[in-house]
Amino acid sequence: MTPEEKRTLRIGFALTGSYCTFHRVFPVMERLAAEYGEVWPIFSERSAVTDTRFGNASTFLARAEEITGHRPILTIREAEPIGPKRLFSALVIAPCTGNTLAKLASGMTDGSVPMAAKAHLRGDGPLVIAPSTNDGLSASLGNIGALLQRKQIYFVPFGQDDPIGKPNSLVAEMERIPETLEAALAGRQLQPLLLGAER
User: Sign of dihedral through CA atoms 120, 143, 173, 133?
Assistant: First the structure.
């Protein structure tokens, strides 16, 4: 895809509550905002209000708006028009928690991010998921498997981030979101999908 082609596209960028990965995700948002025509931030209800040791919610919201020039989408009501308006060329969820994976796999739309995903998929656009969950190889594994079989859903390559200390934990290589997104826009899953522990 040429730089000129990218500048015609609009990308949704949704964040859910794996706060420990936000420091890896915001530089990616900045890169996408520089490369694509528009980037629109979306925050889950929890990530929009929860202050943690990784930072304050208000700071993250302000940073996303500064990077993209758009006020973040925060509610189901704000996310629902994404589908009818065909607002995005592609939607990225990064980080995507186990809770959000479960909602996507079961078709639940009880929050801003799953509603954004459902609305976007209504128009048959690509959805890029960057998982970050401590139960990726246990409770969330079935949901990942279910989503891998779905049309227009693509995963950022992921692997175990701490096989000894947290053997069930999976985290996507957030820095590879841009190339995963470009592959998804071309209708293909970036490979290899599964990463080794040494990375």
Answer: positive
Per-residue pLDDT of the chain (199 residues; tens, 9 = 90+): 899 999 999 999 999 999 999 999 999 999 999 999 999 999 999 999 999 999 999 999 999 999 999 999 999 999 999 999 999 999 999 999 999 999 999 999 999 999 999 999 999 999 999 999 999 999 999 999 999 999 999 999 999 999 999 999 999 999 999 999 999 999 999 999 999 755 4
Cut 0.90: pTM above it: yes
**Cis status of the peptide bond prior to 192, with omega within 30 of 0:** yes
* Torsion 196-153-36-69 (CA) sign: negative
Q: Which helix (H) or strand (E) holds 95?
A: strand 90-96
Following DSSP, what letter does each residue of 15-74 receive, concatenated? E-S-GGGHHHHHHHHHHHHHHSSEEEEEE-TTTTT--BTTB-HHHHHHHHHHHHSSPPB-
Domain 3-185 has CATH 3.20.20.70: no
**Extents of the domains making up the chain:** 3-185
Q: Which two tokens stand for residue 28?
A: 């990616």
